[in-house]
Write a structure and sequence with these properties.
- Helices cover 77% and strands 0% of the residues.
- By secondary structure, it is mostly helical.
- Helix 1 crosses helix 4.
- The longest helix has 33 residues.
- The termini are far apart.
Length: 310
Amino acid sequence: MTSTAVVVVTSVAAAAAFATSSTLKHVSATRIPREPRTTAGSLRRLAAATVRHPFWLAGIGADVVALSLQVTALRLGALAVVQPLLVTGLLFALVLRQLTQRRRQRAEIGWAVVLVASLAGFLLLSGAAAPSGPPEAVDRIAALVVALTGLGLTAGCVIIGRRGGPAARSAAVLGVAVGTVYAATAALIKELTTLAVAGPVAVLLSWQLLALVVLGVSGLVLNQLAFQAGPLSASLPATSAVDPLASIVIGVVVYEEAIRPGFLAGAGAVVLLAVLSVSVIALARDGARDARTDEGCPPGTANGPGTHEA
């Protein structure tokens, strides 16, 4: 098996493991008390209830498997290749959701296929998935600008998502914040795999490790908030789309990974990004419809007020 094939297979396997984790964590998030405010005390109560829930713990186990596969893929392949392949986890997650909730919604799976296909087409046209040679040194000024931009975007999404309003919209906006954090986490993981060549001491003494821990914890909390805010079909597509696209931005701006120039390729990429956006919106609307349907379920039934599942 070629190295490219190993990267693809490992990345897709990681996507399947992440999908299993997302499904388990979503069930967990819908079965613990919801915290209406984003205060330190509220987040502590949410964290305490979450870490004791068996479904969340099982999701963490799936995360361990997924992260191991992702680290392997990032060590062998480019950031702009591995992260977009992880978007296939959206298909796995929505299929698992339909199986666990005993629903059959072909439109939802269809839009998910459109999302994955449009992203794959974007990669082919832009050339982001093409090998770009040996990795370049990190542009530290560009990295700082990207980090501050990502921080501002994440904070803005959290503020908007926690203000209330339609459940699907709040879940989707928080999903954008989660995707941004996940992209930054992937970039730090890639940095640490490079540092690991110098030995474990270099990794333990690096600022990247501390930043990874902070982002990892932040990602877990934001993910649970997004899952609590609304249906999985609203938050997960937003996360799945933003994560690889933000990773491409990081790869191009910070690591100088190549993007194919040209008017036709650029125009096609813009069209595909528009299609991707439409598919995310369509999935969020499906999630909103599911949420309204669930609110009408009798207490104690699947997804009804008795379980608070969306």
